[in-house]
Write a structure and sequence with these properties.
This protein is mostly helical and about 130 residues long. The chain has helices at about 1-20, 45-60, 65, 90-95, 110-125; strands at about 30, 35.
Length: about 130
């Protein structure tokens, strides 16, 4: 049993390092079942955590100026993300195409990072 933990830790570490892959969507997330995952919500803890961490990084560089660290700053009339009820598809569409005063980010953020960002935005909800 202990001999199996080392490869698992190595794979998780690699996944964490590659989770913010700069738009390289050819690197799917690792799942404990050994299957690859390209969806934004798998129900597996480790991949979801990696996606949330990556999403937080993207949020801090691209979104925090208007939405604030907790998603509720509402600078320049931006949406309060803590009370947003958009589903993952709605969040993704808002990021890609813009919504209200928010500009479109489809050409500024890689699709894979938009998926990670959507997971993080949902984690801000109260």
């Amino acid at each position: 049993m202990k001999s199996g933990i080392i490869p698992f830790i190595v794979i998780i570490t690699i996944n964490l390092l590659l989770s913010c892959n700069g738009g390289n969507s050819s690197v799917p997330a690792y799942t404990p079942s050994g299957k690859t995952d390209t969806s934004s919500n798998t129900g597996n803890t480790e991949p979801a955590m990696a996606k949330t961490d990556c999403g937080r990084e993207v949020f801090e560089t691209r979104c925090m100026a208007c939405h604030g660290q907790s998603g509720n700053a509402r600078k320049d009339n931006s949406a309060n993300l803590q009370f947003s009820r958009l589903d993952s598809i709605g969040i993704t569409q808002a990021i890609k195409n813009g919504k209200g005063v928010m500009p479109a980010f489809k050409n500024a953020i890689a699709d894979s990072d938009i998926g990670h960002l959507a997971v993080y935005v949902k984690s801000l909800r109260k």
